C-alpha cells in the first residue's frame, strides 16, 4: 500500500506565502496550464525508480491545485499523460494509471469540499476500466461545482484533438447542418475538448526543456510561457508564486500596440 520511497518526499514547509496571493486579485491569470515534466529525472538523481518520481509528482500536483484554488485562479489544466507517452514501458504506464486511481480516491473529498469542477481532456477509452470508472465517479461528483475548474489532460494530444474537431465540423457540413463559410475561430474553439473555457493566459513547463510536446496548440496562441528548471516533484507553491509574478510583469500586446 505505502511504497518504500514514501518517506523520501519531504512535504514542503508551510510559509508565510501560503496564504498570500502572488499579485493583486485582478492580475491573477484566469487560466494556467502546466506541463508537469521531470518526474523521471527527479527519481534518477535520487537512484529511485521512475515510479517514485511519478508518485512525488502527484504530491506536487496536489499542492498546485490547492494553491490555484486559494489564489482564485479559475482554470488549471494539467498535462498528465500525452498520446505519445504510450511509447513508454508498459510497467511505467500501468503505474501511472494506478496513480490516477490513487489520486482521485484520496483527494476527491477535498476537491468536492473546495468546490472544484473536474474535466478530462483526452480519450479515456484506452485506459484500464477501473481507472475509467474512478474518473467517471470524480466527474459525476464534481459536475455541479462552480469553483476552480481542473482539467486533467489524460491520453491527450493537441493534434488528436484538432483532428477530432475537423472531423466533427466536416460531419456537420456533410449533414448540411452548416456550410463551409460558417466555419470561424469560435466554431473551431467550440469543437475542441476545452470548449467553453477561456484560453490559457500562462503556460508553465518544469524540468528545463523549452517545448510544447503536443499540448494545447490552438489554445496557447497568446499564452505567456514560463519555463522553470526545477523538476516537477520539486515544484512548490513558491515556484508557482514566482511564475505568476513573472506573468504579471509581462506586457501582453496581442498584436496591438501599448
Ligand atoms: C512527466 O515526467 C510525467 C509524464 C510525462 C507522465 P517524465 O516522466 O516525463 O519525467 P522525465 O522527463 O523523464 O524526467
Ligand atoms: C510532456 O512531457 C507530457 C506530460 C508532461 C504529460 P514528456 O516528457 O512526454 O515530453 P517530451 O517527450 O520530453 O517532449
Ligand atoms: Mg518528460
Distance separating the two termini = 56 Å
Average residue pLDDT:
94
Instruction: Let me know the number of strands.
Output: 6
- Helical/strand content category: alpha/beta
Radius of gyration: 19 Å
Biggest sheet, in brief? 6 strands, parallel
Fraction in helix: 25-40%
Active site: 37, 85 (proton acceptor)
Cofactor: Mg(2+)
Function: Catalyzes the condensation of isopentenyl diphosphate (IPP) with allylic pyrophosphates generating different type of terpenoids.
EC number: 2.5.1.-
Explain what you see:
The chain has 258 residues and is α/β, with parallel strands linked by helices. The chain has a domain at 26-87 and 96-155 and 200-246: Undecaprenyl pyrophosphate synthetase. Helices cover 40% and strands 13% of the residues. The protein contains seven helices and six strands; from the N terminus they run E-H-H-E-H-E-H-E-H-H-E-E-H. Strands 3-4-2-1-5-6 form a six-stranded parallel sheet, sandwiched between helices. Helix 4 links the parallel strand 3 and strand 4. The chain is globular. The termini are far apart. One 3-methylbut-3-enyl trihydrogen diphosphate binds next to helix 1. InterPro entries: UPP_synth-like, UPP_synth-like_CS, UPP_synth-like_sf. One of its GO terms (biological process) is polyprenol biosynthetic process. Homodimer. Keywords: Magnesium, Metal-binding, Transferase.
Amino acid at each position: 500500500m505505502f511504497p518504500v520511497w514514501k518517506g523520501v518526499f519531504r512535504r514542503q514547509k508551510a510559509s508565510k506565502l501560503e496564504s498570500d496571493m502572488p499579485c493583486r486579485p485582478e492580475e491573477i491569470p484566469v487560466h494556467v496550464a502546466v506541463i508537469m515534466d521531470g518526474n523521471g529525472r527527479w527519481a534518477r538523481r535520487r537512484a529511485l525508480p521512475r515510479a517514485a518520481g511519478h508518485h512525488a509528482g502527484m504530491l506536487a500536483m496536489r499542492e498546485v491545485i490547492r494553491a490555484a484554488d486559494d489564489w482564485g485562479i479559475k482554470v488549471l489544466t494539467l498535462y498528465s499523460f500525452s498520446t505519445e507517452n504510450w511509447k513508454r514501458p508498459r510497467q511505467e504506464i500501468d503505474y501511472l494509471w494506478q496513480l490516477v486511481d490513487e489520486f482521485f480516491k484520496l483527494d476527491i473529498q477535498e476537491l468536492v469540499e473546495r468546490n472544484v469542477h473536474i474535466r478530462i481532456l483526452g480519450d479515456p477509452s484506452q485506459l484500464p476500466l477501473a481507472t475509467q470508472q474512478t474518473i467517471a465517479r470524480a466527474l459525476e461528483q464534481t459536475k455541479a461545482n462552480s469553483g476552480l475548474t481542473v482539467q486533467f489532460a489524460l491520453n491527450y494530444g493537441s493534434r488528436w484533438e484538432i483532428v477530432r474537431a475537423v472531423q466533427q465540423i466536416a460531419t456537420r457540413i456533410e449533414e448540411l447542418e452548416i456550410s463551409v463559410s460558417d466555419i470561424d475561430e469560435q466554431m473551431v474553439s467550440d469543437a475542441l475538448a476545452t470548449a467553453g473555457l477561456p484560453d490559457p493566459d500562462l503556460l508553465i513547463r518544469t524540468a528545463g526543456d523549452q517545448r510544447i510536446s503536443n499540448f494545447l496548440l490552438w489554445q496557447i496562441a497568446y499564452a505567456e510561457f514560463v519555463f522553470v528548471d526545477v523538476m516537477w516533484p520539486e515544484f512548490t507553491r513558491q515556484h508557482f508564486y514566482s511564475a505568476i509574478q513573472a506573468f504579471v510583469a509581462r506586457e501582453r500586446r496581442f498584436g496591438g500596440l501599448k
